[in-house]
Write a structure and sequence with these properties.
globular, alpha+beta, 6 strands, two-stranded antiparallel ribbon, 4-stranded mixed β-sheet
Length: 379
């Protein structure tokens, strides 16, 4: 697929396209990049192509304008990420920037061209973090912003007018309560290392997750997007750069078996959380879309699950905004119970591929409703 070839040019996996796109094909490529929120990265591919494969001037101007807009917004989000990190640490919390601008640092020379979203920051009380951490974080936010919207693992923190912030008490959760308990134990073991792993961002030192933490955490992030908001290539590209950075330097120094052994801890956690079908599907996408070689992947690709995941990505687009299988305005007007059953039906279909999350999702959604109504976060 020409679009996948363009992505591979952007990340340095190929030097040119197998064919020169026509004006209409270039327009289609631009539209696909918008739907997947990777316009800036695809513009980098255009710059890297030999001049005989460049788009026409008007189409090129569209790419340039998008890239400039993205770069400006990226600079702003880096500054805001550093500011909210400093603010929360001054207020007596440990903090760590999740995803977002922390991911952008992995993109190297492409960092300013990564499409940005909101700011997610994992936050725990510095003093006795094991004692009611969720309640203490929520009460702090509600003290300053009483109408902040609360969800199971994060709460809005509208401290800026020009950037959305979500304060996370847990980086992410699983619908299956038994698997979620295992995940929480892993978070507890990881907390100190992640909160102390600092890098430079916007001229300040800011904590971001380690690559090994991100290898599992961002896989889980993809998992939640599949069932909740919709999954796009932007999240997949973030994961590609996590794997790419983990693999850097290993190909020339280590045997394939040695490289595989580096992922023993990751694979053990993947198995314990029943994520093998997801990991195999993501590895398929890494191979097909980004051109990663089999020896660079930490587990074997799963074609069946991978084709289903890739189809969902291309059909729904980033956050599911371009999904034509249902009309969003109609869904928004539907009664809550009708929306509940519609989403349940969709997730039961996904449960054919990812049963541990899909079968528990309707149950968890009902529990989350009462959790918010009765303020169970105070327990």
């Amino acid at each position: 697929m020409l679009f996948f070839e363009l992505i591979q040019v952007a990340v340095g996996r190929r030097e040119r396209l197998t064919m020169t796109p026509s004006a209409s094909e270039w327009q289609h490529l631009f539209q696909l990049s918008e739907q997947q929120s990777i316009q800036g990265i695809c513009y980098a591919a255009v710059r890297r192509l030999p001049q005989d494969q460049w788009p026409e001037e008007q189409n090129l101007i569209d790419w340039i304008w998008e890239a400039q807009r993205i770069a400006e917004h990226s600079t702003l989000l880096s500054e805001r990420s550093a500011q909210v990190y400093e603010h929360l640490t001054r207020e007596g919390f440990d903090a760590c920037i999740l995803k977002g601008q922390g991911n952008a640092l992995l993109y190297g020379e492409l960092s300013s061209l990564r499409q940005v979203g909101d700011i997610d920051i994992w936050t725990l009380p510095h003093d006795n973090p094991g004692h009611q951490p969720k309640r203490r974080v929520v009460e702090y936010v509600l003290k300053h912003f009483p109408s902040a919207f609360l969800r199971f693992h994060h709460i809005e923190y509208p401290i800026f007018d020009d950037a959305e912030v979500e304060v996370h008490f847990k980086p992410i959760y699983l619908n299956n309560p038994f698997l979620n308990r295992r995940l929480n134990r892993w978070y507890d073991a990881q907390r100190e290392e992640q909160m102390s792993h600092r890098v430079e961002m916007a001229g300040k030192l800011v904590a971001v997750p380690t690559l090994r933490f991100n290898a599992l955490y961002q896989l889980l992030h993809i998992y939640k997007h599949i069932f909740e908001e919709g999954i796009g290539l932007r999240q997949m590209m973030d994961y590609y750069f996590v794997l790419q950075r983990l693999n850097e330097g290993d190909l020339s120094r280590e045997s394939r078996d040695s490289r595989k052994s580096r992922y023993d801890d990751l694979l053990a956690m993947i198995r314990s959380l029943k994520l093998e079908p997801l990991a195999g599907a993501v590895m398929y996408v890494m191979h097909e879309v980004f051109g990663m070689k089999e020896e660079e992947l930490y587990c074997a690709p799963r074609r069946k699950e991978g084709l289903s995941l890739l189809s969902e990505i291309m059909q729904a687009g980033n956050f599911g905004h371009f999904d034509t299988r249902y009309d969003k305005e109609t869904v928004a007007r539907q009664a809550s119970m009708r929306r509940y059953w519609r989403k349940t039906k969709r997730n039961l279909v996904l449960a054919c591929y990812f049963p541990h999350e899909g079968l528990w999702e309707p149950v968890f959604r009902l529990y989350h409703f009462f959790w918010r109504i009765f303020n169970l976060w105070k327990i």
